[in-house]
Design a protein that fits this description.
Bound molecules: flavin-adenine dinucleotide
Radius of gyration: 18 Å
Low-confidence stretches: none
Distance between the termini: 14 Å
Strand order of the largest sheet: 1-2-3-4-5-6-7-8
Shape: globular
Largest sheet: 8 strands, parallel, barrel
Pathway: Amino-acid biosynthesis; L-methionine biosynthesis via de novo pathway; One-carbon metabolism; tetrahydrofolate interconversion
Enzyme class: oxidoreductase
CATH topology: TIM Barrel
Protein name: Methylenetetrahydrofolate reductase
Number of strands: 8
Strand content: 5-15%
CATH class: Alpha Beta
Keywords: Amino-acid biosynthesis, FAD, Flavoprotein, Methionine biosynthesis, NAD, Oxidoreductase
Number of domains: 1
Order of helices and strands: HEHEHEHEHEHEHEHHHEH
Mean pLDDT: 95
Catalytic activity: (6S)-5-methyl-5,6,7,8-tetrahydrofolate + NAD(+) = (6R)-5,10-methylene-5,6,7,8-tetrahydrofolate + NADH + H(+)
CATH architecture: Alpha-Beta Barrel
Amino acid sequence: MRLTELLKTDQVTISCELFPPKQGAQLANYKNIVADMAALKPAYMSVTYGATGGTSDYTVELASEVEKHQIPALAHLTCASSTKEKVASVIEELKEKQISNILALRGDIPQNADFPLPNQYRHASELIADIKAQGDFCIGGACYPEGHPEADTIFEDLDHLKEKVDAGCEFLTTQMFFDNHILYNFLYKALSRGIDVPVVAGIMPVTNKAQIKRIVSLSGNMVPPRFLAIVDRFGDNPAAMRQAGIAYATDQIIDLIANGVNHVHIYTMNKPDVAGEILDNLSEIYVRA
Ligand code: FAD
């Protein structure tokens, strides 16, 4: 199923995220995680590609495993660390496995490397145009409600986002944010720039103290005082921090849905228990697929 069939309706959707194993020996265990996550009946499940130093070798295989559970898979595909030939071979693999949804990303530029080399893509928009030329995929891209860290201004970033949409990106998933007003402001600005594809709001349940430090250092996200107070008060009590993080994410999602943001992606980080608790908290608000 093409995800835009879901995302262009008014129906509320909640999706989850998985990352693939670093070694093939871990694959069986990861397939169990897919099964546990699939039992929660998310609208779709996305599988990352080489994110934060992880591997990309098993993304297609794990995405294919997701579809065995009759849940649409969204396979991420990044290009900054790959040649165009490597990207083309992954596209062929996706076709073979009949996976029709791709989240096309540039990825982070490898440190101390000449970039781009002649056989590399410079921006996600170039990758998107090429995927479109190579097959009938439903292509999504990333967007950044606080602006991408490399962009000088949010408006410059939005201009490039528009190029991405014009290149064939049919929907967007946001970087995580911890204050919903940041997303609402972003949506107005994006619309005023003519970016009118569905935007899926990315929510990260922060369930331990180390996670928030990593997030801020990687993405430069703004963390509101209300959330910092939670980390200060409960950060050294793992069970309390987990419960408060789940409650905070639930609260964000309820506010989004109440304000008409119908599509939410939970950065579940291979934790079906966390995803399950959030969905249980929403049982009267969100009817599972
Ligand atoms: P782009 O859209 O290419 O943008 C990157 C920067 O370049 C921006 O500052 C943009 O304004 C600028 N830019 C774009 N076009 C131009 C142009 N024509 N001229 C000048 N500047 C331009 N990383 C992974 O490694 N694996 C994953 O699975 C993964 N999944 C992600 C999922 C989501 C929802 C998000 C939000 C991010 C994800 N990332 C992942 C991280 C992502 O790869 C990085 O944030 C990366 O730095 C940017 O990727 P992009 O696709 O947004 O790049």
